[in-house]
Amino acid sequence: MVPSPPVDASRVNLTSTMEVNYWCQALNCAETRLRNAVLAVGPLAADVRAYLYR
User: Fold this and answer.
1) pTM of the full predicted structure?
2) Which of 13, 39, 53, 54 is the most exposed place for a label (fewest CB within 10 A)?
3) How far is the CA of 40 from the CAs of 37, 44, 54, in angstroms?
4) Does 6 map to a domain?
5) Could you give the C-alpha distances from 32 to 7, 26, 38, 44, in angstroms and in order?
């Protein structure tokens, strides 16, 4: 089952389990990697995506 998209798709919200699940699936990464990316570059989805795919 595909998680529902977040309310604000421009930001990665790590406080919501549903949004973390969505972003992990959308970006094809583990939760730890997602959290590390947000710590490194901030919550903007475009920045997180660029960081993960560099």
Assistant:
1) 0.91
2) 54
3) 5, 11, 13
4) no
5) 22, 15, 10, 17
Closest CA to 37 of 20, 2, 3, 9: 20
The answer to whether residue 9 is domain-embedded is no
DSSP string over the chain: -PPPPPSSTTB--TT-HHHHHHHHHHHT--HHHHHHHHHHH-SBHHHHHHHHT-
User: Residue 38 sits in which domain range?
Assistant: 17-52
Overall number of domains in the chain:
1
Q: Fill in the amino acid letter for 49.
A: R
4-34 residue pLDDT tens: 889 899 999 999 999 999 999 999 999 999 9
**Residue 22: HSE in the Cβ half-sphere, 13 Å Cα cutoff:** 18
